[in-house]
């Protein structure tokens, strides 16, 4: 466990750890997002911008700050000053000392008072720094518990509670892939409303089959269609609901493969597209390339390696995610409310500090 004396040292330690975690999984933007939220909490607590419970201001016994070490440092400085004074040449016996004038005595007196004032200010500053550091650790833990961990614990409930505001009776909803967030959202709406869901099978992973099975078990009228039938079925659809792997700073999203096809068909037919996502998936990064955050998986499910006569003559790419631009999204539904793509920048500013936009 690393020891730290002030907020800047703690920020450096957390940033270094975050860089290592993000480097291990560069396409999992949620890892870096959580680290950046922790850094924002540390910065706000150190600046005194957060109003926290007074009970957290008790001095922890296991604080990582060493008060004795700071006192020893101050005592060593005093000893050095005494040694310097002892090194000054002393008057020899019998040597007549110069008579001190009133002006010289006053100057020395003021100098001594000035040195004493500097020492007192330094001691007060050290004591204040010790006190602030003692208070910093419990406040950071309290804010992480109340803000970050609490949000993670209520993600699905916070999004599902808004289902009745967007899903109405006798509507036809279309989705693709398997997303627990979307699944909980639709199941909650089905408790009060009756509607139909069309699920694209999401080849070649066929996650849509698992999604359709879960919805049908919840009593929802569910139909599975091939991905090639999305455009043909879209005129009957009232809303499209998508999940998200990540939401970028420009309001675009990274979602399961096939999401772009579904969103493009919805835009052509002027069908609203709702995206259910948690706030921790919001990333302050931009995708300057559509494949910047994509993952290419094995093409075994597209074309088997047993097809030797064909596989040697073609190049197959099997992307796992799709980049869906902000122009295709109507509304983001997150665990604290909803927002259009043009408002994503504000959510990012509320959750991350500008200094932590990139982990360096």
UniProtKB/TrEMBL annotation:
Annotated compartments: Cytoplasm, Cytosol
Comp. bias intervals (Basic and acidic residues): 84-94
A single GO cellular-component term on record: cytosol
Record keyword Phosphoprotein present: no
Stretches for region Disordered: 52-98
Keywords annotated in UniProt: Cytoplasm, Initiation factor, Protein biosynthesis, Transferase
Compositionally skewed regions (Acidic residues) per UniProt: 63-83
Recorded superkingdom: Eukaryota
Record GO terms (molecular function): guanyl-nucleotide exchange factor activity; transferase activity; translation initiation factor activity
UniProt cross-references to PANTHER family, sorted A to Z: TRANSLATION INITIATION FACTOR EIF-2B SUBUNIT BETA
Family: Belongs to the eIF-2B alpha/beta/delta subunits family.
Subunit structure: Component of the translation initiation factor 2B (eIF2B) complex which is a heterodecamer of two sets of five different subunits: alpha, beta, gamma, delta and epsilon. Subunits alpha, beta and delta comprise a regulatory subcomplex and subunits epsilon and gamma comprise a catalytic subcomplex. Within the complex, the hexameric regulatory complex resides at the center, with the two heterodimeric catalytic subcomplexes bound on opposite sides.
Record's protein name: Translation initiation factor eIF2B subunit beta
